[in-house]
Structure formats: structure tokens, C-alpha cells
Design goal:
The chain has one domain: Immunoglobulin-like. 14% of the residues lie in helices and 55% in strands. The chain is built from 1 helix and 7 strands. Strands 1, 2, 3, 4, 5, 6 and 7 form a 7-stranded antiparallel sheet that branches. The model has no long low-confidence stretch (mean pLDDT 92).
């Protein structure tokens, strides 16, 4: 695929992503808007900032939600977030061809 085709694929990913849904260990789910999209070469990063809270929080799932409201990717790593500290997380995709 040429560079134009690759950029169009990355455009599609950027256009279809809408927000993240974060699940905490207490079962509470929170919608987080996209903070930043970074593109470099054949890589796109979709970043989210989970704001600080007055108490420590444990994140158990981060889901990437598309513009139709469906989950298109997820991370299930357990992340401890200290009290009064925000947390930046995101999804990264790199295009590569398999020959």
C-alpha cells in the first residue's frame, strides 16, 4: 500500500473513534473524551486523560468507543491511580504489511 492509502486508513481510525469508557474496581464506569490524537508515520495514538480524584482509584478496564457507541478495542490491565493524580492512557496502532 502506498503512503496515501496508509494515511487514509489512519484517517478512518481517527474519524471513527469517539471516546473511552473507563471501569473502576468498584464497578463505576466513566466516559472520558479524547484528549489528543498523535500521528507519526504509520502510527496513530489516541490518548485519554483520566482526571484526578480525592481518593486512590483502581482502573480495571479501558474501552475505546466508536462513533456508533460500540467498543472497538479494550485494555484490561489493572492500573492503580494515586489520589489527586490524573492518569494518561491510550491506544496505539501501527500499520504494517505482511509479506
Amino acid at each position: 500500500m502506498n503512503n496515501y492509502g496508509i494515511q487514509r486508513l489512519l484517517d478512518s481510525i481517527e474519524i471513527m473513534t469517539k471516546e473511552a469508557r473507563v471501569t473502576f474496581s468498584n464497578g463505576v464506569k466513566e466516559i472520558i473524551p479524547i484528549r489528543k490524537v498523535e500521528r507519526q508515520g504509520m502510527t496513530i495514538r489516541i490518548l485519554f486523560y483520566i482526571p484526578a480524584a480525592q481518593v486512590p482509584q483502581t482502573i480495571t478496564r479501558v474501552e475505546l468507543i466508536d462513533n456508533r457507541g460500540s467498543v472497538i478495542d479494550e485494555q484490561t490491565d489493572v492500573i492503580e491511580k494515586a489520589r489527586r493524580q490524573g492518569f494518561m492512557t491510550g491506544f496505539e496502532y501501527t500499520y504494517s504489511e505482511v509479506i
